């Protein structure tokens, strides 16, 4: 027996990619409600999720440009949650990762009174999960900052947003304290450095020193996260609250010390985020980086104590790929994997160019556990793929099964080698809208949803071949893969 008893098997989602009903139940707009679908033929391999300026945002709000905003419709979980949760229960889920849409609770972000209809919706969802013995695992902010906070404060660049977030966190802790035990503060907190609008709600063209603005916003998020940890511990003593990182293991291209050093540096830039949230302080390599790049973080008295005293109970991360770094200056601009790095010749890639690396997951698990010595939770992993519905309605997604089997095997090895891994929630357990491309056709689920990139389809749910496979994985606690 490798996987510990009580291992939290399940699936992961996010409100903005799942719920739909973007203007129902008193919900305000979120940043992702403004992101349009651009077909691959038009955008090529470029991924641009960010709204960058006030002007661009105003134009979008005025309805200029296209009108296809897939994240507004999601897969209509808002009206299908009972049916979907019944399917998760049939697979034997122990846990279900979801997020609360912040603007569903505080439509403008800075309101004092919460929106009761929004609160009531999540009560119904949690009750439904608990009915089947499924533990909700809830992310407070999965790229879902209310749009008004972007318009009024340029997102997390403004310190006042910390108070609004803490008020939101306390409101939901208080409301759901009898129902939700597992919490996460920010999804993929490191995404802000690549995508300031999505990660921190920043209209980046409105600021002069861009990196300064991003790291200042991140400081506010770190403080907000630590204060949410504090509130959670006080209000729900038996809860566990964690942080969440988009983890990418970085390999050197060769054993040349230049490549090794470059890989180490890139890896540190990734681990900086968990260093702050798990260890409770800014690592010295980052303070040097700030100095070199003329970045001055404005900290208030007490911030350092808050970060140090309220570290997370566990570390969670998404894992899809590894990266390769080269010390050669001319290779810095290469885009070998998703958005950067040299291509790894030993690995295959998904249809979106994400390089598949199950062993990299084991390496990452071992490295993270060595570094932090706290329980680890893989809260996202999976294969985005085009699925084909056969004439008889079946979907034979053996490629997805192969992908997951290979990753779970490496998890097993990591556990045997001493890593404390407490759970695994595969990404997009039900097909939903892609975060990076807003496509519906980039599918991750065990459950197929009949909808295309333009919103056509019946929204009917059907089981893929991987559905029964995953059910067996859970039933045997990972023994039969
Ligand atoms: C992570 C996000 C998710 C999710 C996933 C897959 O970065 O936390 O929200 O969508 O990646 O990415 P994509 O949907 O772009 O394929």
Automatic annotation (TrEMBL):
Pfam families, per database record: Glyco_hydro_1
Tree of life domain: Bacteria
Gene Ontology annotations for the cellular component aspect, listed alphabetically: cytosol
SUPFAM superfamilies per the UniProt record, alphabetical: (Trans)glycosidases
InterPro entries: GH, GH_1_N_CS, Glyco_hydro_1, Glyco_hydro_1_AS
Entry-linked Gene3D superfamilies: Glycosidases (3.20.20.80)
GO MF, one annotated term: beta-glucosidase activity
Catalytic residues, chain numbering: 380 (nucleophile)
Record's keyword terms, sorted: Glycosidase, Hydrolase
GO biological process, one term: carbohydrate catabolic process
Family that this chain belongs to: Belongs to the glycosyl hydrolase 1 family.
Protein name listed in UniProt: 6-phospho-beta-glucosidase
Organism for this UniProt entry: Trichococcus pasteurii
